[in-house]
Design goal:
The protein has 275 residues and is an all-alpha fold. Helices cover 76% and strands 0% of the residues. The chain contains 13 helices and no strands. The chain has helices at 7-21, 25-40, 46-64, 70-73, 91-136, 140-153, 160-170, 174-187, 192-204, 208-222, 226-238, 242-255, 260-274. The longest helix is centred in the middle third of the chain and has 46 residues, at 91-136. The radius of gyration is 33 Å and the shape is elongated. The chain starts with 6 loop residues before the first helix and ends with a helix.
Amino acid sequence: MLNVAPKELRENIARANGYLRRNEVARALNTMGSALRQFAGVQLMRGPRAELDIQISEFLTALMHHQAMQPLLDPHNTGKPKPIRYQQGKEGALATVLEGLAKIMVNEAESEIRRATEERVERKKMLIETGTKLLSEGQLAKGRAFLKRVAEEFSEDPGIRVQLARIFLAAGQQMEAAEMFEESIEHEPREVQAYSGAVTTWLEMREYERAEKVFQAILRTFGGHPNTFGKMAKMYWDWHKRDKAEELAIRALQGNKSQPEAMEVMAALKQRQAH
């Protein structure tokens, strides 16, 4: 017969009450369940036992009135939740009840997460399909609005802006596509497809200054690469900046003697000099 409750038992009861105060209800239920199973195997003197009995009863009272327990203990919202009673000698049975309630709460939480996820996926699909349809029908302003709403609502989804940019491209909306690629770069600085998409689109539009800025961002983020230098050389050639084109072509060929864009620029320079 012990005159002091084991430390682990006292800590578990205190921990369960703490979790409940922090609204970690399932965790509180499981912790109190563990404490009750420990309690069942301990022989305590009347004083220390009465102290733990009070703490357990306080826990059950707080649990009964906790908002998270209402669907389980007062499903019809009567204001009179079903009490969970504690009886000495039946700690194991109470532990089973509490652990069962915890399992129900966890399962319901997981189901709610699945429902929310499914609803989210369906909403994103609806917005994208509606925006794409409006663009195909020539309702450009409305279509753009729907697709930009996707970027706002689902901004944390990896690759979402690249996906939207490609939809804009397919609809012939190059400016919107290029700007969406650039928005993707801001949110996902390591998204390679965003950089390549932005560069390609700006170059197709002959927006050389904007393409140059993206190339500079590529160099800052990923470092120099012969293919990057080669594509930059071709851009400067088309932009009639011959000195820059030659400089970048040479850098590209230093890293890869057969880099195609650099070879094309050097051949064009040689031909120009011959005339």
